[in-house]
Amino acid sequence: MVLSRHEARESRRIEARLTAEDPQLARRFEQWRRSRERVAEAAALATGRGVENPLDDSATRLRRLWHELLRGRIPLP
After folding, report:
1. N- or C-end of the chain: fewer Cβ atoms within 10 A?
2. 14, 29 in Cβ contact below 8 A?
3. Does any domain span residue 77?
4. Range of 29's domain?
């Protein structure tokens, strides 16, 4: 999902207000952010994008990321 600049700014403002009210939410938002980044990385590896060195171990990294996702180690929003 791609947000406009205005939507992204509004989202950050709401997130900042909520985390100020409840510090535990700050940790949860960070977990969601990391999980989105890891899922995006796995998707890029699956499609062959983002691989600078074709001789690297991207297939193993992709497998590991998907296993973490399926086992629930990467929390999804």
Report:
1. N
2. no
3. no
4. 5-70
The CA distance from 30 to 12, in Å, is 12
Does 28 reside within a domain?
yes
Would residue 36 count as lying in a domain? yes
Instruction: Return all residues near 42 (Cβ < 8 A) that are at least 6 apart.
Output: 62, 65, 66, 69
Q: Answer for the pair 62, 56: CB distance below 8 angstroms, yes or no.
A: no
Helix 23-47, helix 58-70: angle, nearest 10 = 140
- Global pTM exceeds 0.85: no
Tens digits of per-residue pLDDT, 4-57? 888 878 888 888 888 888 888 888 888 888 887 777 777 777 776 655 555 556
Alpha-carbon distance 33 to 66, whole Å?
A: 17
In a domain? residue 43: yes
C-beta separation of 38 from 74 below 8 A: yes
